Backbone:
């Protein structure tokens, strides 16, 4: 895709689920693109992908692939990011990394544009895209933090299998068919492909996402805890998470309880605040059974919030239900937003 003036963009992991969403998102936005390059493992090199009607051949990702690239969007696994992101930076590219490789690196900004866009000014070539479940939560909570302060967050997630990749989606579908046909199932992917045991996900709920840590929390739960503190610049914020996998293909849901530093708060205050918040769609009308659901969020870039209730015991406690498409706002859309923010802030120039 050639234009006379614009940015040279690379998508690393172009053939994967998030890579595909990145490509679709770039097609739908107005980021000025002079040339787009699709990169992948040697296994997927040679495939052809469409971008705005033009067939583009996928190339194997190598250090020299980043010559002349302005922004490289990475979503090909942490080991690839560790290996190739520094090589891309050496060649003048700004890397937006969608893996966990650099999220907690103190030299790397961890960015959700609606929350901490200004942190982009401190990048040293690499910018980290947070975990999908963290992103949707902080988008909804940032307006509350600004207006009323935050003291405590307790979150329980209801996460879709697409967060674990294409193999997990296939496993859900195959198990569902097998169970309905009274066939034996042989779980092999969830909760974690590399862990000791695997469990049924169809017609089931698995209270494990990623591996367990010494403190009893899973790695996914610790990601949410640590990333939230970093993004909000609140190292002393009290955060606890329980992350659960559901038999839903796409769209993460979260039940979130927050306590504000303000001594008293009402549900009406929060609804009013979130009705105008960037990136948030308020869906909160219990009388008419209107609330966010993952089936309605698929394919949309927004964060949907509803079921807003004042806690019955704590004057400064509020409950919220937060839903978003984990492949879009949780990954591809946030990455492309970061690229747009880099342009807006003058941190990358169109040539």
Residues:
């Amino acid at each position: 895709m050639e234009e006379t003036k614009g940015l040279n963009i690379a998508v690393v992991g172009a053939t994967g689920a998030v890579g595909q969403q990145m490509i679709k998102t770039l097609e739908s936005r107005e980021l000025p693109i002079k040339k787009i390059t699709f990169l992948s493992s040697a296994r997927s090199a040679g495939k052809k992908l469409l971008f705005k009607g033009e067939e583009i051949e996928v190339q194997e990702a190598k250090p020299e692939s980043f010559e002349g690239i302005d922004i490289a969007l990475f979503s090909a696994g942490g080991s690839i990011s560790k290996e190739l992101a520094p090589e891309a930076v050496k060649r003048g590219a700004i890397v937006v990394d969608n893996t966990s490789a650099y999220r907690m690196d103190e030299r790397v900004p961890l960015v959700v544009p609606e929350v901490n866009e200004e942190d982009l000014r401190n990048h040293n070539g690499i910018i980290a895209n947070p975990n999908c479940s963290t992103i949707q939560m902080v988008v909804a909570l940032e307006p509350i933090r600004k207006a009323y302060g935050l003291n405590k967050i307790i979150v329980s997630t209801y996460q879709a299998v697409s967060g674990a990749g294409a193999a997990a989606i296939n496993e859900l579908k195959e198990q569902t068919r097998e169970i309905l046909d009274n066939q034996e199932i042989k779980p092999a992917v969830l909760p974690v492909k590399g862990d000791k045991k695997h469990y049924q996900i169809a017609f089931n709920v698995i209270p494990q996402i990623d591996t367990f840590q010494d403190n009893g929390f899973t790695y996914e739960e610790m990601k949410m805890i640590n990333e939230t503190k970093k993004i909000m610049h609140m190292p002393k914020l009290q955060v606890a998470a329980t992350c659960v996998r559901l038999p839903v293909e796409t769209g993460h849901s979260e039940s979130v309880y927050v306590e504000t530093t303000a001594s008293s708060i009402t549900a009406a205050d929060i609804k009013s605040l979130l009705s105008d918040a960037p990136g948030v769609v308020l869906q909160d009308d219990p009388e008419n059974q209107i609330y966010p659901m993952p089936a309605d969020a698929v394919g949309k870039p927004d964060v949907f919030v509803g079921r807003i209730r004042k806690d019955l015991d704590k004057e400064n406690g509020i409950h919220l239900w937060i839903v978003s498409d984990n492949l879009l706002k949780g990954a591809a859309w946030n990455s492309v937003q970061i690229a747009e923010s880099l342009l807006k802030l003058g941190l990358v120039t169109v040539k």
